[in-house]
Amino acid sequence: MDPHISMSIIDSIKGAIARRLFSCSYLPDSLTLWSITGIYDTLGTSIQSYHQKRLRHILQHAVDTTTYWHRVLPATGINVRTITLEQFQRIPILDRETLKHNPDEILANNLRKRSVTTITTSGSSGVPLKIYADDVFLKKRILIHRHYLQKVLHLNGTNNFANLRNRTHTMILGHHVNLLTDDLASEVSWLADNVQAACGPLFNLMNFARRLNKLNIKLNLDFVVSCAEFLSPTDRKYMEKTFNCLVYDQYSNVEVGLMAFECPLRNGFHVNTANIFLEIVDKRGMPVQNGEIGRILVTAFDNRAMPLIRYDTADLGQWMEGVCPCNLKTPRLIFEGRSSNVLKLPHGREYYLKHLMSPLDIKFGEIIEKFQFLQKSREHLILRIIPSAKYKNGDEVAIRKTLIGRMVRARAIDDGGAFDIRIEKVGAIENFPSGKARLFVSAL
């Protein structure tokens, strides 16, 4: 069977499954069933077999239509028509610098210009990117909106919500509210009648929640889905109280879209195995063992405009062992944060910043409005904080003791060694232009 016809059949099956599933009222269950039970059970195949077929299709397309992959893939000596998952690991990793400097070489030459959309990333990783996406890929990314989520409020712009990047989204939602200037009080009736859930970057969700609280507006939503930023326990708790529902986290990026998501148990991130192939590798580019932290690589099956193969997301993660109690058999991962959010310490040691964020949020969340780490040398770390009204003189001693103690117990630094943390109280901390929180600034 022709591979393109075969994939069309698969897409039709997925569409039929989605239409049935998205008539229900619970997004996480729907996504979960569609991602694994629906597609694999219907096709009568395993995840590994399915991935192998889809990888062969996107690799062949990449060789045939792009300058970059036409040069790189044949040099590996691998036959992309018969490639195995083990051989796939020999393909060179596509890093962000290569993508930044060679976007047109990775653009497929067999698509009409009007069918390709240019998307830019926020640059929160330190490397802003230009991504090309075809219409089919974009439509698949909003499949859920077409079948069920007409009543989901999207907070995707820095200032606007329900005002997304392409006409398809706008057509679906059809209502625009400016988060900063519009009178939300006058929109209460519309929100109550038309919004069942909300999703978007954490920054926008929190702004929306704070404004609702300030205006004493109550919304009873079915669920909220946060993405694009680290969702702390404090922020999750705040939004759950404001929106009177559970808040779920989602691992996604502009380049690929949805990569992993929380199930109803919120016990790790289930990989979106229907649409991507996700790897976690060590510094040599080889698969990590369970419990080891490594770089997250992703291969997207659906974007034929710009085939991203073994793309380094600049994120860190580790695999979780065992099957989730929700009984899904998809792989699960723990997201460890950006690869750039790593402290460089004396004696060549490193420490993941995420492990300092947790105690700040859980233990000191009520006295710290916002924080940012600044590192200028291996021996010194500055913690900049915006104190809340509950902050008292002397609290910085407890904060410093907690952070230093955590690093000593992890053997990242020596007890009584040269490393020190200084705390600075400030009035403001600047975000990225996109609105994302800038949690770490390193001069190293």
UniProtKB/TrEMBL annotation:
Superkingdom, natural source: Bacteria
Gene3D superfamilies: N-terminal domain of ligase-like (3.40.50.12780)
SUPFAM superfamilies: Acetyl-CoA synthetase-like (SSF56801)
UniProt cross-references to InterPro entries, sorted A to Z: ANL_N_sf (IPR042099), CapK_Type1_Caps_Biosynth (IPR053158)
Protein name (record): AMP-dependent synthetase/ligase domain-containing protein
Organismal lineage: Bacteria, Candidatus Lloydiibacteriota
